[in-house]
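Deliverable D5.2: sample structural annotation.
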Amino acid sequence: MRVAGTGSASLHPPQSIAGTGSTNLHPPQSRDDERGPMKILKLLLLPYMAAIIAGAYLWVEPAKGFIGESSRIVFFHVPCAWTAALAFLVAAAYSLAYLVRRNPRHDQVAEASVRLGLLFAILTLITGSLFAKIMWGSYWNWDPRESSYLLLVFLYGAYLFLRAAIDDPERRARIGAAYALFAAVLMPFLVFVAPRITESLHPQTVINPQGKILMDTPTRVTFFAGLVGFTGLFLWLLQIESRVRTGRGLKR
């Protein structure tokens, strides 16, 4: 077949592009197929979290020594604190990776992880304040654990302000990575050491001084299922946040 003004028309798609080798002809949906199991896990996360909430209120009996239903806050307060610590450790790991490899992608994940860590840390303070109001009559009592955790929030909040004050992307990433590593060194002291230096109103932690976990079966199952669920939620949000930040970086 001939077309005016051209040579013979080809009805087949081009097999190569100038300056490259053969074109990749795999359909784009093949990549989605590879993520099928991950998509299923994400879809299961919502009913899984709903089951945890239902278990916390319908299966577990209120703990002795607490006022009313206040002990149920533990099923959300502790997982939030755990997830915040995990997020800050992930940020430190990616910050170290950035300093070693200078890959901007690592810096983007580190920043996204700090932002999510701050979100869960603030939720930790909020749930803890609700518990304090019920148990001790005040939202804030300047308890050592409350105060040290507030300092942790300020410590990582300063990370975001520091990044916002630096215009050069490479310098911002380098200094931010160093700060994230510095903050990760201080975090165990603020979370585990400082609250134990003086007496605290805070109830006994999950693992008591004898190294035992004193929980009945419903409490233990619901509690640790909550830790797993909040961890999955964090990883999902981190993936979304990292994609958003990568997209913003490409547009600049």
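Annotation notes: The chain has seven helices and no strands. The two ends are 46 Å apart (CA to CA).
The annotation will be released with the project's public dataset once the embargo ends.
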